[in-house]
Write a structure and sequence with these properties.
The protein is an alpha+beta fold. Helix content is 35%, strand content 21%.
Length: 384
């Protein structure tokens, strides 16, 4: 009993020594709040340029024209009446997908920023924009052909989303087609088919217009996979290293690398120092044509040869496919298949003949225009 009383007394004595410490509100854990995921920063670029720099730089190579509703657009000078965007150069596969390497000294701007449009008087014109891409194009792909077309004005790129393109159709003359086996050529221009072939070839191909967006800010031009290109060309696709450079004159390509100048473009409210009204620009563009009768004759022969060759390829492919279908058909269906084959061949031949006539008509008109221009220039020289 005495021992129990002693234990109880010790407990009471200890409890009397415990101090009360008020609760410190500052030590309460902070309430957890929602934090949005971090947004990827824009990819690193080398340097910064302004819109006024682009106006001055491209002004050396063409004309700035006030063109509604796009504002000031640029028209290249001296490229020739047969020129189309993304034709003087080659395609390489990089970390950004299919990347265009231009042969033009000014190519680092209008093939990697902005959009291309068409005007019957001016020809191809470029609408400036500030976002870089390996190439602003859309693709078509088939068993015989690979094609691409510049994205038109009005197609927007939205960070984190991709292309905003309300109307996914293009005029047939926007398309540039080559035989698939020519896609790896270091210089594509000799293999580009005449535009008269485009309507038929469009029906031999399917559109590819879906791309990957990298780091929210960069479009990766991968609508055509390397495996598809390898299957069609029967050659391996080698990934080329990208090296960023700090000056436009350093841009270009080597055996195993492509050198890209991709500065950030600063938006500003400025106008070109020199610009022309549309009618005056159209006149100057005609005067700046460099192709004489001899050069045009070479181009025309090349176009006719490519047209004839690819038409023959299409007919041979159609015959092979139809013969295979006929061979696999039941005996009672063979005659019907043969009839269908003949009808399809005849329909394709009619389209080919129409293409040939359209090509000959266009070439005759071009020769007529060139003769007129040469005669006028000769007269002006004699007056001087």
């Amino acid at each position: 009993m005495k021992r129990a009383s002693l234990v109880l007394a010790l407990i009471l004595l200890a409890s009397s020594c415990i101090l009360y410490v008020p609760y410190d509100e500052s030590r309460r854990p902070a309430a957890r709040t929602y934090e949005p995921p971090p947004v990827a920063a824009p990819p690193a670029v080398y340097g910064e340029i302004s819109i006024s720099f682009i106006y001055d730089y491209l002004g050396r190579y063409g004309f700035w024209v006030n063109y509604n509703p796009y504002g000031y657009v640029w028209v290249p000078r001296g490229v020739g009446r047969h020129w189309r965007p993304y034709t003087q150069g080659r395609w390489v596969w990089t970390e950004y997908g299919w990347t265009w390497v231009s042969n033009h000294p000014w190519g680092w701007i209008p093939f990697h920023y902005g959009r291309w449009g068409w005007d019957n008087r001016l020809g191809w014109f470029w609408v400036p924009d500030v976002i870089w891409a390996p190439a602003w194009v859309v693709w078509r792909f088939g068993d015989l052909y690979i094609g691409w077309a510049p994205l038109p004005p009005g197609v927007e790129f939205v960070a984190g989303y991709g292309l905003r393109w309300p109307r996914r159709d293009l005029p047939h003359h926007y398309w540039v087609f080559v035989e698939g086996r020519r896609f790896h050529s270091n210089q594509l221009s000799p293999w580009i088919l005449p535009p008269e072939r485009n309507i038929t070839i469009i029906n031999f191909t399917v559109i590819r217009d879906r791309y990957t967006v990298k780091d929210r800010y960069t479009l990766v031009n991968d609508a055509l996979s390397p495996q598809e290109i390898e299957r069609l060309t029967r050659r391996p696709v080698t990934k080329v290293t990208v090296r960023q450079v700090q000056k436009p004159e350093e841009a270009g390509s080597g055996l195993d690398e492509v050198r890209i100048y991709r500065p950030q473009i600063k938006q500003e409210q400025v106008t070109p120092k020199n610009s022309l009204p549309k009618e005056e620009a159209a006149k100057k563009i005609r005067l700046a044509e460099e192709a004489g009768p001899e050069k045009v004759e070479v181009i025309h022969r090349q176009e006719a040869s490519l047209l004839e060759r690819t038409q023959k390829l299409e007919l041979e492919q159609l015959k092979r496919k139809a013969e295979e279908e006929t061979r696999q058909a039941p005996p009672q269906e063979k005659q019907r298949k043969l009839t269908e084959l003949q009808a399809r061949i005849e329909e394709l031949k009619k389209k080919h003949e129409q293409e040939k006539q359209e090509l000959q008509k266009r070439q005759a008109e071009e020769k007529k225009v060139i003769r007129k221009e040469n005669l006028r220039r000769k007269t002006e020289k004699e007056k001087k």
